[in-house]
Amino acid sequence: MASLSTTARWQVQAKPSAKPSSKAAPTDGNPDYPTFSMDGLGASRSVKIVVYTAAGIIGTLETYAWGMWGWYKLYPPSEEERRDVSAAVP
After folding, report:
1. pLDDT tens for each residue of 24-80
2. Which residues contact 51 (CB under 8 A, 6 or more apart)?
3. What is the rounded radius of gyration, in angstroms, for the C-alpha atoms of the chain?
């Protein structure tokens, strides 16, 4: 006996995509962050020059400061040198 149905014989269904979409949350629970780069942040050429120059200057000053600290720790001034420096300061 044939049955009559009011629904279509083949229903259109969305096919699952072969590759996951980039907007979907990762399965491991970690959020999907964009790449960290100057281009990703939208920095122009002049901003890159300023940032790299400032980083270079600050890095140089930090290296100098650590060098002076290390030199002082490895070779502390003698008592005579300390007296000479304190006498020179008015």
Report:
1. 555 677 777 777 888 888 889 999 999 999 999 999 999 999 999 999 999 988 888
2. 38, 43
3. 34
Prediction pTM value: 0.50
At residue 61, what is the residue type?
L
CA distances to 64, 67, 71 from 74, rounded to whole Å, are 15, 10, 5
Contact 46, 52 (CB under 8 A): no
For residues 65 and 59, what is the distance between their CA atoms, to the nearest angstrom? 10
DSSP 23: T
- Both tokens of 71, joined, read 């030199």
d(CA 68, CA 55): 20
